[in-house]
Specification:
Number of strands: 0
Order of helices and strands: H
Strand content: under 5%
Largest sheet: none
Number of helices: 1
Shape: rod-shaped
């Protein structure tokens, strides 16, 4: 005996279960994507903070290096 559209009645149940399983997997994947997106956003913020810190430390080191070079330069005797 066939159901609607000439299909076997049990096939409709099987298709319904398969669709539910696929929908469940898609929902799970969407949740994972949202979590990963949150991680990527937080890592982007951390990366920006670290970049600024490296720039700040680099500038401080350049200043210290210049001060060290200036303090080690001896003036010629006729300038003292």
């Amino acid at each position: 005996m066939t159901g609607f559209g000439g299909k076997i009645p049990g096939m409709a149940d099987e298709n319904s279960r398969r669709i539910e399983k696929i929908e469940s997997h898609v929902a799970h994947l969407e949740h994972q994507v949202e979590q990963l997106n949150g991680v990527v956003i937080e890592q982007g913020k951390l990366l920006e903070r670290l970049k600024k810190e490296v720039q700040r430390q680099s500038a401080a080191m350049q200043t210290l290096e210049l001060d060290h070079i200036k303090s080690n330069q001896q003036k010629p005797p006729h300038y003292q």
